[in-house]
UniProtKB/TrEMBL annotation:
Its main location: Golgi. The keyword Zinc does not apply. It is found in: Golgi apparatus membrane. This is Carbohydrate sulfotransferase. GO terms for molecular function: sulfotransferase activity. It comes from Daphoenositta chrysoptera (varied sittella). It is an enzyme of class 2 (transferase). Keywords: Carbohydrate metabolism, Glycoprotein, Golgi apparatus, Membrane, Signal-anchor, Transferase, Transmembrane, Transmembrane helix. Signal peptide: none annotated.
Length: 416
């Protein structure tokens, strides 16, 4: 009897210790702001759980964590946020101190004198298209049928979490991700300058924006929470506002090529340009630095780049680089029910509407567009010298992104 009582007492003490440990862990990453601070007008999916609803759809461990966190939140719901006391000076343009940003140039004109889109209807249509094709068994593509639990942690590294405002952003390179990452840094206060969080997105240097240590992403959860990581991910996916931005897949490829191979980029030259020049342009004894190569007129052509994407050896060596990896592989739109789908083609309107829905439009505004942004009208010229068979293969490679996000099939590029 004594041993049995000691055993029961030990179990109780261990349980209490685990609960306290979870509370301490969670407290360190901002659970005081766990609840969703936004309201969207679109209907939630049947499995989605809004603040204040029952938790009966969750498994036992999820229910335990959710109720534990809920009790903690009630005690902290009245904590004021210093950032919410700051008002954006609407007419002042932020000072652009970064050299690269000055070279690229900003277009401020797009923020005024535009007819406002019916954003609510637009979002309903975009989400309807995505859900219909995800549910359509006749439309298939790799990884479509797997569940969220089947996605390995390393494939969740594009999901950035802001616990302060209850936001999850899946970033897609070449789709305004630098500025959206800046916004997430300002909201989450994850980066300080002389002990003070950044308030203006454009003040944040690019090298800090793309530093992986700056952002809390889903793939980091395992190190923090161990076996509870997936449960916490699922709870946040149900409670937080999830958004992503996309663009025409072919235009995104052009933008990636311009950015990584037309400008002197040492890393991309060594990792990608040298193999492309050897494989598809029959060059040997290439310079070791990009500046020497450019000086000698040795540059990857757009044709080399397309051949590289279509070459079956490419994926066997390693997954596509994130700058040309398909959006469905980066953001898992059939496994994650996104609340907001923005498009680069309507970036200014979409960004303003999203910040309003997130109730942070008084804290900051989204930085303006670049003047020299790659345009859809460039497609015909860029693909003019690409053989028809390659264009058709390339479309099949990116077809899921075209279909899921409502981009029309580029028939003019796929026919003689």
């Amino acid at each position: 009897m004594t041993k049995a009582r000691l055993l029961r007492l030990s179990v109780v003490l261990v349980s209490i210790f685990m609960i306290l440990l979870i509370i301490v862990y969670w407290d360190n990453v901002g659970t005081a702001h766990f609840y969703l601070h936004t309201s969207f007008s679109r209907p939630r999916s049947p499995g989605a759980i809004a603040a204040g609803e029952d938790w009966e759809a969750l498994p036992d461990v999820d229910e335990f964590l959710a109720k534990l966190l809920s009790s903690s939140l009630k005690q902290n719901s009245s904590i004021p946020r210093k950032t919410e006391q700051l008002l954006v000076q609407g007419s002042n343009k932020p000072v652009v101190s970064n050299l690269e940003e000055n070279v690229r140039g900003y277009d401020w004109s797009t923020h005024k004198d535009r007819n406002s889109l019916d954003q609510e209807k637009l979002q309903v249509e975009r989400q309807r298209t995505l859900r219909e094709f995800c549910a359509n068994s006749s439309f298939t593509f790799p990884t479509k049928e797997r569940s969220f639990d089947d996605i390995p942690n390393y494939e969740l590294n594009h999901l950035i979490v802001d616990d302060r405002h209850g936001v999850i952003y899946c970033y897609v390179p070449k789709v305004a991700c630098t500025n959206w990452k800046r916004v997430m840094i300002v909201l989450s206060e994850s980066l300080l300058e002389q002990g003070v969080p950044y308030r203006n997105p454009l003040d944040i240097p690019r090298e800090h924006v793309h530093n992986t240590s700056t952002h809390l992403t889903f793939n980091k959860f395992w190190r923090r929470y161990g076996k509870f990581s997936r449960h916490l991910m699922k709870i946040k996916l149900k409670k937080y506002t999830k958004f992503l931005f996309v663009r025409d897949p072919f235009v995104r490829l052009i933008s990636a090529f311009r950015s990584k191979f037309e400008l002197e980029n040492e890393d991309f030259y060594r990792r990608f340009a040298i193999p492309m020049l050897k494989l598809y342009s029959n060059h040997t004894n290439l310079p070791t630095s990009v500046s020497e190569a450019f000086g000698a007129g040795l540059r990857v052509s757009f044709s080399d780049f397309i051949q590289y994407l279509l070459d079956p050896r490419t994926e066997k060596m390693a997954p596509f680089n994130e700058h040309w990896r398909q959006v469905y592989r980066l953001c898992h739109p059939c496994q994650i029910d996104y609340d907001f789908i923005g498009k680069l083609e309507t970036l200014d309107e979409d960004a303003a509407y999203l910040l309003q829905l997130l109730k942070v439009d008084r804290l900051l505004r989204f930085p303006p567009s670049y003047r020299n942004r790659t345009a859809s009208s460039w497609e015909d010229n860029w693909f003019a010298k690409i053989p028809l068979a390659w264009r058709q293969q390339l479309y099949k490679l990116y077809e899921a992104d075209f279909v899921l996000f409502g981009y029309p099939k580029p028939e003019n590029l796929l026919k003689d």
